[in-house]
Structure to design on (273 residues):
């Protein structure tokens, strides 16, 4: 089965072959998880979002239209999951003094960001090792829209047209995002070298 | 005829970094230090990006996914 095309494996999955579902997970777990991890920079959360993505895709496999690339479909759902999460998070952003919605001193205390907690956990150490390089930190500083475009272009090797289809953006917008993203990355990396 | 005096566009620099820029346009780099510097900077970033690794989720990820996927066995498998 590993030599079959995505379209063939999807066709088998549509027929209800368990092994075909597993093959799709095997093929895409790393690329999908990597995209999500670089988008949200939290291993456990990225894994939850990746799981959510696969469950949605595999349970909806019968609605998949073969004229589209399967990889575009799964990346679109993964990217939407990440963007939705980041939007929710920006609404709930905690300041060091507590959430903006906190009205009483108790609520302020309960929502105050606890610096140091995560930094000492073994998981945070793994994250710091994996995402701590200069280029990873530079990617993290990009706007989420730029980040997904640049990751699909240079990590996944997608063409501009495929990215436009996947993210449902005009081709010109994708080009602009990628050029700006590379420009910002260069700036961040060169600042570090100076 | 291609004008070799015209500066490279961002798209052309990307093609050059991938080794896909037509030779006639690539010749411009030999004469233009502005474009050469710009192209080298772009290539460095692209190289860093393409070398980024894929990360793996924790072991058992596929089993956790499959536990929540409804697989309807083919009709000819049913007794």
């Amino acid at each position: 089965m590993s030599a079959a095309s995505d379209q063939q494996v999807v066709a088998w999955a549509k027929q209800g072959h368990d092994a075909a579902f597993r093959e799709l997970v095997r093929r895409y777990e790393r690329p999908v998880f990597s995209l999500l991890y670089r988008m949200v920079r939290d291993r456990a959360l990225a894994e939850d979002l990746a799981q959510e993505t696969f469950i949605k895709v595999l349970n909806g496999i019968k609605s998949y239209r073969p004229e589209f690339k399967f990889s575009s479909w799964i990346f679109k759902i993964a990217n939407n999951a990440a963007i939705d999460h980041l939007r929710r998070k920006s609404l709930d952003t905690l300041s060091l003094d507590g959430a903006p919605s906190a009205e009483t001193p108790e609520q302020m205390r309960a929502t105050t960001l606890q610096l140091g907690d995560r930094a000492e956990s073994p998981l945070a150490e793994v994250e710091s090792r994996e995402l701590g390089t200069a280029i990873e930190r530079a990617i993290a500083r990009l706007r989420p829209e730029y980040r997904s475009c640049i990751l699909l272009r240079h990590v996944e090797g997608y063409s501009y047209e495929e990215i436009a289809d996947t993210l449902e953006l005009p081709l010109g917008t994708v080009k602009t995002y990628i050029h700006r993203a590379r420009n910002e990355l260069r700036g961040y990396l060169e600042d570090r070298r100076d | 005829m291609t004008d070799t005096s015209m500066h490279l566009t961002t798209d052309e620099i990307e093609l050059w970094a991938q080794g896909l820029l037509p030779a006639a346009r690539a010749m411009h780099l030999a004469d233009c230090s502005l474009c050469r510097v710009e192209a080298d900077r772009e290539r460095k970033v692209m190289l860093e990006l393409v070398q980024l690794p894929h990360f793996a989720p924790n072991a058992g990820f596929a089993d956790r996914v499959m536990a929540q996927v409804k697989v309807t066995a083919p009709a000819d498998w049913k007794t």
